[in-house]
Amino acid sequence: MKDALIQLIKGVLKGPAADLVPVWFEERPPTFSKKDVMFSPFNSNLDHSQKDAISKALSSKDVFLLHGSPGTGKTTIVVEIILQEVKHGSKILACAASNIAVDNIVEQLVPHRVKLVRLGHPARLLPQVLDSALDAQVLQGDNSSLANDIRKEIKVLNGKLLKTKDRNTRRDIQKELRNLSKEEQKRQQLTVADVVLTTLTGAFSHKLENSSFNLVIINEAAQALEIACWIVLLKVMMH
């Protein structure tokens, strides 16, 4: 979290969220479209107040706060917002302070066949969302497409492997090759995903280093530490 504070200081002047930081510090008012955005809901069971909240959220150009009592369907609204934004090509980071709150979103998104990835240790995830976990998707994925930087490193290591005869050295090189291949598969899964879901602190993973998103959603934000929220807020780009 200390790193997030350092990034926040830098983010005021540069970074993907530089134009949004003044809004979050109330130095500049939030902006909205002149008219509420009309949309065709994916969920046919939305009531009038939920549709109104979604329309206003889609009309927001920088920040939108959704407040409601327990049981009023806030997560349902969040899921609909995600689906609407994905339809328009947005890349989304959806977070919460707790794993259960993140998994609740995953559960509701899965039936819509959204390209999503759930970051987090499998032992901390609900059993019903494990198929959406990054590690599970890597095992099921295709590793034929490797990024240039990793490919070059693998090529160099393969060259060393052919030249060396020392058994221990060969074993170390083979281990490094496996690690590189696995890491790149994870990068590929994150690249193609429309929605990445993780806890707030999980978003500080090196897997999301230098990543930015069109939209960041914090579910159950009132239960989160402010500094934890900044970890993900600094990853959002101005529309």
Quick structural summary:
With 239 residues, the protein is an alpha/beta fold. The chain contains 9 helices and 4 strands; from the N terminus they run H-H-H-H-E-H-E-H-H-H-E-E-H.
Question: In words, what does this structure look like?
Answer:
The protein is α/β, with parallel strands linked by helices. The protein is 45% helix and 8% strand. The chain contains 9 helices and 4 strands. The protein has helices at 2-11, 21-24, 48-59, 74-87, 99-109, 134-140, 148-163, 167-192, 226-233; strands spanning 92-96, 116-118, 195-199, 215-219. It has a 4-stranded parallel sheet, with helices on both faces. Helix 3 (48-59) packs across helix 4 (74-87), helix 6 (134-140) crosses helix 8 and helix 7 (148-163) runs antiparallel to helix 8. The longest helix is centred in the C-terminal third of the chain and has 26 residues, at 167-192. The relative contact order is 0.18.
Features:
alpha/beta; elongated
Spatially, the strands of the biggest sheet line up as: 2-3-1-4
Contiguous low-pLDDT stretches (5 residues minimum) are none
Beta content comes to 5-15%
Shape: elongated
Strand tally: 4
Structural class: alpha/beta
Mean pLDDT: 83
